[in-house]
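S2.1 Query sequence (Hemoglobin)
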Amino acid sequence: MQIQSDSRTYYVRIGGEEPLRRLVQHFYHFMDELPETGTIRRMHAHDLKSAENKLFMFLSGWMGGPSLYIEKFGHPRLRMRHMPFSIGESERDQWMLCMRRALDEVVTDKSLSDELYAALYGVADFMRNQAE
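Output structure tokens follow.
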């Protein structure tokens, strides 16, 4: 038996711009509302619109869609941009909790949701800059 993998980009598989925007909106809604994500919420400005827009632009390119972030800001340099913040396992896990909830709300294809979660976990784990 041969396993077929879906070679389309995450951007195409998620449905493009509109579902990606909803994913990011849900992500920040959960960050703003869940008491257990207070540490990462306090790392952000009171108004989350700028962060929401930047995450949308980054994820668009990261998922294989338009490279909006790079076009506007250049290379993401994620670790460098996150160095001013103390990011350990707890902060990574808080970020991933928001993303898991957002994926559950927006992505109806369970296999795609699980693939995205695993891939984003790698990105979130890479942001850690604190030894545990």
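DSSP finds eight helices and no strands in the chain. The mean pLDDT is 93.
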